[in-house]
Design brief:
The chain is α+β, with helices and mostly antiparallel strands and 99 residues long. 38% of the residues lie in helices and 29% in strands. It has a single domain, classed as Dimeric alpha+beta barrel (Alpha-Beta Plaits, 2-Layer Sandwich).
Length: 99
């Protein structure tokens, strides 16, 4: 299963706290780095995005837990767009079949 993970810096993070988050990040590595398909930082410096592929969502929980003090995370289960389009097409066909 693929997940899109987003994070934003919490509003109460001070300059000192941001410095600490970077220190922690410099020593951290994902539970399974090979599961990170994309790992991106926002240009405005206020967060980032990751695409993670795993059959065990606990990996994501573990990887985000150490940073929850500084960042608010959102995790979205995802499908390939072709799969999503096919499913939506089936839904439309079903709805059209009902008088």
């Amino acid at each position: 299963m693929k997940y899109a993970v987003t994070w934003e810096i919490r509003p109460n993070v001070t300059e000192e706290a941001a410095k600490r988050s970077l220190q922690v990040f410099s020593k951290w590595s994902p539970t399974h780095p090979e599961h990170f398909r994309e790992f991106l930082g926002r240009l405005d410096g206020n967060g980032g995005f990751a695409v993670v592929e795993t059959d065990d969502a606990r990996e994501i929980a573990k990887d985000t837990a150490a940073f929850a003090t500084w960042f608010e995370f959102h995790v979205y289960p995802c499908l390939e767009i072709a799969d999503t389009a096919a499913i939506n097409g089936e839904a439309v066909a079903f709805l059209e079949s009902i008088s």
